[in-house]
Amino acid sequence: MAITPDTKNWTWVLERPCPDCGFDPASVRFDQISDLVRANVARWPAVLARPDVAVRPNEQTWSPLEYAAHVRDVFRVFRGRLELMLAQDDPSFADWDQDATAVAERYAEEDPRTLLVELTDAGAAAADAFGAVRVRDRDRRGLRSDGSAFTVATLATYFLHDPVHHLNDVRG
Prior knowledge:
The protein has 172 residues and is mostly helical. The protein has one domain: Four Helix Bundle (Hemerythrin (Met), subunit A) (Up-down Bundle). It is built from six helices and two strands, in the order H-H-H-H-H-E-E-H. The chain has a two-stranded antiparallel sheet. A hairpin with a 5-residue loop joins strand 1 and strand 2 (149-151). Helix 1 runs antiparallel to helix 5 and helix 3 packs antiparallel against helix 6. It starts with 32 loop residues before the first helix and ends with a helix.
C-alpha cells in the first residue's frame, strides 16, 4: 500500500510551534541542538524493539520501522547539507524526495536491529556535526531548490523538528 506523498512546505516550523508534536522553535537555542538530537536518538531503541514495529496503523501512515528509517536518513541528509553550507558560499541543496526514498530503499523491509545501529550512528554524526559549528559560521546560508533560504542556525532548528515530530508520530 502506497503512502500519499507529503508535499507540504514545513518551513513554517521556524516561525511557530507545531500543533501536532508541540515543537516550539522559539524554545530551542543552537547550542542545544546536539544534546536534543542525542536525546531523540536515545528514545528510538524502545520504538524499534516493539513486536509490531513493522505494522502500519493504517494505509496512510508509515509504520514505526519506516519512520525510524526516515529519521536515520534525515540525520544523514541534514548532516550533508550542514557540511555543504560550511564548505561553500550559498550552496543549493539537491532535492530529496523522502517518499521516493522510502520506496526505493525499502524502508518497510528494514531489519530493526540493523536500523537501530544505523540510526544511532547517523544521529551521533549529525549531533557531532551541529555541535562542532563555530559561532561565526551560524549565519552561513544555503538554499533549497524551492528557493527557501536557511542559515546554519535555522537549518538546525528546521532539521531538529523532523526527528522530534516523527518520534511523536510513533509515540516514542
